[in-house]
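Notes, Module 5: Reading structure tokens.

Key idea: the token line is not a picture. It is a compressed description, and you learn to read it the same way you learned to read a sequence, by spotting repeated patterns. We will look at two proteins. The first is printed below with its tokens.
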Amino acid sequence: QVQLVESGGGLVQPGGSLRLSCAVSRTIFSFHSMVWYRQAPGKQRELVASIIISGGYTNYADSVKGRFTISRDNAKDTVYLAMNSLKPEDTAVYYCNAVVDPNTDWNYWGQGTQVTVSS
């Protein structure tokens, strides 16, 4: 069974920064891609950023482009989400997702980490 453990969430003021981590219990090269999602209260879960493991191609939601950066550390089997210039509307639970096969539902989820942006 694959385990994904997120960390790095917390309370930050508007304009501040946080870096989320997603530690994977299996080599990340086992996966096609890694994805960060978020879900705010009363809203649907939305894709924030993704990275294709082979090649490193990244993709971002329009709402976070230029502010968030997804990256990976192959040696540590960890994926990161660096978040800068945070806004109150970034407040949500952030989830890490490991996609084995994008053509199927074969993927794994972490438990989520809360990010709250407030003064």
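Here is the second protein, with the sequence above and the tokens below, as before.
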Amino acid sequence: QVQLVESGGGLVQAGGSLRLSCTASRSIFSINAMGWYRQAPGKQRELVATITRGGITNYADSLKGRFTISRDITKNTVYLQMNSLKPEDTGVYYCNARFDYGSDYTDYWGRGTQVAVSS
């Protein structure tokens, strides 16, 4: 099991930047993959970015070039740097940890942090 705590959300003007943090209750090196997802009002939760234990990153195509996922293993923390923010980036951002068992997996989620981008 793992507990995830997000921070760093807030209100920002369009074109601005935010950095989200997700701190895990255990070594993130013991987790197969961690990532960020978001949910806009009235929409389904969607992938933002993931990073594997080996450091391989993956992004939603629409966010490549603006968002960057990174990690600090010594702090058990994963970050999401968001630049050139747009009003459509508004939503609740959730941290995810996935434990992969081959034919099955288990996901853990943080409570989310709110991001609001004003035009």
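Summary for the second protein:
- The chain has no helices and eleven strands.
- Residues 99 and 106 are 5 Å apart (CA to CA).
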